[in-house]
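Example record

One chain of 232 residues, shown exactly as stored in the release files.
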Amino acid sequence: MKTGSRRFRLSPLVLLAVMLVGCIADEVGGIYIVSGEADELYSVANQMTTTYFNAGGKWTAVPSVNWLAVSPSSGEAGKNAIVITTTLPNHTMQERTGTVVITSGGKSETVSVRQRNEYAFFDQKEYVVDSAGGEVNMGFTSNIEKGKLMISYLRLNWYVMSDSKSATRGEVWNGKVKPITVLSNPSDKVRSAPFVLGFYVDKKKFLGLDTAWVHQKPSTAIAEIPDTVTTP
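Predicted structure tokens for this chain:
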């Protein structure tokens, strides 16, 4: 009886399969950004952008700054998407950049998000008018060009926006909102209304940047509010 060793030869198909397994193993934990590597958002809160990516394994996504939030913050391998949202308005008066780091198996990719620096601030947040009525003059500071910055307000019958072209929208000029004439208050209840500085995006969506309130005292002392209101 003859004894001896047998030589095994791997077929080309088997070799190809081994190579593919090796490549897949190398890619486990990797991140490949499909779209949304960088985006620019307006300076207000609740602005969103979506990033699409492929992950080779379980992954996590972590924002680098407190004015960004990400959802979901983790997931499984495969095709994925995260929504990045601004949680705070940009009151720094300068454009700022934050990042979200997506990590899988020790490998990471960074998504950058820029928040623009449009700003508009009322000089004060509360205005109190006597029950007999009067005129309110609101001042503000803004870096938005004239003709773009607007003031949005409710359609109410107890005040009038001077020279307003719309029942719910008015122009602003030279750091002043056009005067608001408040009519007398015959009721025994306080009347309040918000006024919002902002601008339109694509002529459809109004982005509010700051809000001031006008309060009018009642005709009796049943409900009283102070002459000045302190806001945090």
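Notes: DSSP finds one helix and 20 strands in the chain.
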